[in-house]
């Protein structure tokens, strides 16, 4: 059996960040709705848009981009507004506004439709797109997120979360146009998360694109019962529990995460 890279306690991530991304074929910024949205493309083939989690940035996908390319797809990365190299204005955050940013990037790149891989907040953004703009969405790999406030566990501090948060702080200072603004950034994102997303069962049942609901066995934030509810409620959705990993599976055990991601992409390839 081949060895799998392990960073279960996120010690490597805290010290060094995610694996470096390959050279981009294109990268730039798009002016949209009061923000400059950074995005980049890697490789050729049908597009897969990878959307990172809250407080992170597109560079957190360093272990996944090579797997997407190896499966014959083009990887498209986006820094959500206010995250990484993207800017934001003073308005409150909303997942719908961040979804509109993604559509604007797709338009700028000439992408009519795409497959989506979303992690945490990025998964929510992808499912918002599946709900609001289904003609633009081929499928959604929905990892580790809630779609209503009841899906979130009570916060339990841990060393793993602390290490991830410290890396987010360092990366924000290195990448952001407002490097001293981490605390207000965290406050703004946290305020959004307090009440959003808040999708009803009726709204979820109206989603008409292939969806894989995926959760780490030891996710620190999302209730497993909620993941099961999403898989039951979204028509045709599947549920996968990744063993031995948490909310940070793409960093902890990337081969395990990538195998599930590639399997779903293969199932939905036309």
TrEMBL record:
<dbReference type="InterPro" id="IPR050471">
    <property type="entry name" value="AB_hydrolase"/>
</dbReference>
<keyword id="KW-0378">Hydrolase</keyword>
<dbReference type="GO" id="GO:0016787">
    <property type="term" value="F:hydrolase activity"/>
</dbReference>
<feature type="domain" description="AB hydrolase-1">
    <location>
        <begin position="46"/>
        <end position="144"/>
    </location>
</feature>
<dbReference type="InterPro" id="IPR029058">
    <property type="entry name" value="AB_hydrolase_fold"/>
</dbReference>
<dbReference type="Pfam" id="PF00561">
    <property type="entry name" value="Abhydrolase_1"/>
</dbReference>
<protein>
    <submittedName>
        <fullName>Alpha/beta hydrolase</fullName>
    </submittedName>
</protein>
<dbReference type="InterPro" id="IPR000073">
    <property type="entry name" value="AB_hydrolase_1"/>
</dbReference>
């Amino acid at each position: 059996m081949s060895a799998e890279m392990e960073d279960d306690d996120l010690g490597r991530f805290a010290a060094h960040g995610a694996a470096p991304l390959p050279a981009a074929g294109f990268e730039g910024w798009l002016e949209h709705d009061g923000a400059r949205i950074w995005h980049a493309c890697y490789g050729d083939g049908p597009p897969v848009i990878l959307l990172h989690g809250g407080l992170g940035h597109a560079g957190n996908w360093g272990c996944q981009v090579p797997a997407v390319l190896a499966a014959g797809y083009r990887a498209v990365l986006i820094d959500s507004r206010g995250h990484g190299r993207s800017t934001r204005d003073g308005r409150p955050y909303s997942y719908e506004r961040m979804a509109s940013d993604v559509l604007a990037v797709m338009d700028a790149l000439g992408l009519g439709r795409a497959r989506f891989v979303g992690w945490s907040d990025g998964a929510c953004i992808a499912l918002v797109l599946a709900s609001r703009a289904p003609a633009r969405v081929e499928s959604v790999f929905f990892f580790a997120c809630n779609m209503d406030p009841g899906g979130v566990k009570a916060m339990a501090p841990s060393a793993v979360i602390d290490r991830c948060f410290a890396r987010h702080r360092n990366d924000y200072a290195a990448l952001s146009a407002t490097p001293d603004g981490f605390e207000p950034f965290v406050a703004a994102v946290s305020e959004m998360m307090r009440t959003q997303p808040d999708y009803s069962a009726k709204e979820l049942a109206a989603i008409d694109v292939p969806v894989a609901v995926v959760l780490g066995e030891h996710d620190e934030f999302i209730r497993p019962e909620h993941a099961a509810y999403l898989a039951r409620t979204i028509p045709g959705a599947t549920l996968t529990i990744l063993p031995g990993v948490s909310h940070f599976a793409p960093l902890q055990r990337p081969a395990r995460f990538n195998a599930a991601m590639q399997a779903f992409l293969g199932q939905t390839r036309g």
